[in-house]
Amino acid sequence: MKKSKILVSIAIAIFGTTTMSFAAEADKSSSADRLSPEGYWVQFDEDNDAGRGMPEGIIHTYFAKNDKYGKKGTLQMEILVPLMYVDSSGKPTKPRTTCYNCSNGSYNGFNYRGENAPLEGFVFAGNMQPEAGTAVANQKSDIYKNGGVINPNDGKVYASEAQVQDGGDTMFAKAAYIVWGKELGSKSAHWKRITKADYEKVKADCGVTADGQYTNSDAKVTATCTNYPVAQFGVKSPV
User: Fold this and answer.
1) What is the DSSP code string of 33-101?
2) Residue 113's domain spans which residues?
3) pLDDT single digits (tens) 16-44
4) N or C: which end of the chain has fewer CB within 10 A?
């Protein structure tokens, strides 16, 4: 949602450090964990704009170790490496460094902390819980829902939902506008799974430096990071 698109898609993908300590992560190469919602994902721009099909960032999904952002054990999502943002002129460019027009608050049990928050390492969705009986053997995980998500591009919050699909290769992420229990609108995204080693390469190329500066402030690096070559990881845009 760009303009109401959560870098996260789930955001209404929407809809991008220092990373936190994580729970055990699913690895794309581990067949036993392919349907685990934990792992690393490439989020793509799926909107009809100049950035369509380009990677927007690397997302990490994991089960909460504490109650800071939601109930312990619920599914959370954070931006590890923001890569690309379509600015007001419609041009794909380097991402903002902080959550735009964001505040602190709570929605559906997700305690978001967006005020002046750096995008790298930003927890944008949380408190999602599994809906029993929604999994499909070897194809889809349970649906995780009843949590919240904040769009780091405009600070708006929505109900969140996610499900691992395509035998583990895709995270379907959805953000929905709910009023009095009725869904009045939504947007979905389809992230592609990568390994932790893949993420670490992207971070080395396009993440924040030791002194807190974005390496993509350099023009040459910006050119690479705003359309990062994720095909090297065996993934491609869903659009």
Assistant:
1) GTT-S-EEEEEE--SSSTTTTSEEEEEEEEE-SSSSSSSTTSEEEEEEEE--EE-TTS-EEPPPSB-TT
2) 31-233
3) 333 333 333 444 444 448 999 999 999 99
4) C
